Amino acid sequence: MSATLSRNLSEVRGTGNLQLDPLTGALTRQAFFHQIIDRTAAANTSARVFTVCLINADQFKNVNHQHGQQTGDDVLVQVTNRIRLDLATTMGEVREFDLCRYDGNGFALLIPDSNLEQAATAAESFRQAVGETDVQLGLRVTISVGIAQYQLWESAEDTLSRAEHALQLAKQFGRDRVEVAHSPKSSPEAADVVPLERSA
Q1: What is the pLDDT of residues 144-173, one digit of tens each?
Q2: Does the residue 200 lie in any domain?
Q3: Runs of H (alpha helix) within the chain
Q4: Among 17, 72, 94, 128, which residue's CB has the most CB atoms within a 10 Å radius?
Q5: pLDDT at res. 174
Q6: Residues in a beta bridge with 54
């Protein structure tokens, strides 16, 4: 985990109101940090764990370069909307989902009361949904997803670190795919990451 991310999480632990990203309507990165910190504390007292999905729009710099920033903004809005819609369809309207814009072309999703199998199934579904969406005529984008399940008494940093490592593997293995980190170890290098089969 980067020093910046660890520092941001430390700062968030003592501050702040939840805010929304003005472009996508998703939570801001700082707001997401509040959510995951609260969830880790609650999980350690209730044993109700959660999963985290880190999501990147693939080749996003190329979209901005070839089609312009406005199209890039449209892509981010479309990705946000498709993920939300697909989650509501596949996991039910009654479920709570904390979706945030994690960085420029990245998103983070916290799914309460879920295990790796449930999160991986949901991620495969919204990955396909995003890939089938026309942002503009003839323009589609794909996403890569890394997933980790919170392990009791580990830190939020450790959970995010394992999800980050899984996301990096999804990119290395060709993008437009989901990778799941199974290991509770905090070291990204030690994480046991199992690639999922791509859907036809």
Answers
A1: 999 999 999 999 999 999 999 999 999 999
A2: no
A3: 3-12, 29-46, 60-67, 69-91, 116-131, 156-172
A4: 72
A5: 95
A6: 108, 146
Name which of 69, 80, 75, 68 is nearest 20 in CA terms: 80
Distance CA(197)–CA(127), nearest Å, equals 13
* Measured distance CA(3)–CA(9) in Å, rounded: 10
* 178 residue type, one letter: V
Q: Which residue has the tokens 């890939």?
A: 131
Model confidence at 185, in pLDDT bands (50, 70, 90)? very low
pLDDT tens digits along 42-96:
999 999 999 999 999 999 999 988 989 999 999 999 999 999 999 998 887 656 7
Domain total in the chain: 1
Pick the closest to residue 82 from 41, 119, 49, 126 (CA basis). 126
Q: 143-173: b or e for each residue (b if 16 or more CB lie within 10 Å)?
A: bbbbbbbbbeebbbbbbbbbbbbbbbbbeee
DSSP letter, residue 55: E
Identify how many contiguous H helices and E strands the chain contains and give both numbers: 6, 6
Q: How far apart are the first and last CA of the chain?
A: 34
pTM higher than the cut 0.85:
no
Q: Is residue 46 included in any domain, yes or no? A: yes
Residue 32 lies in a domain: yes
Interstrand relation of 143-149 and 193-195 (parallel, antiparallel or unpaired): unpaired
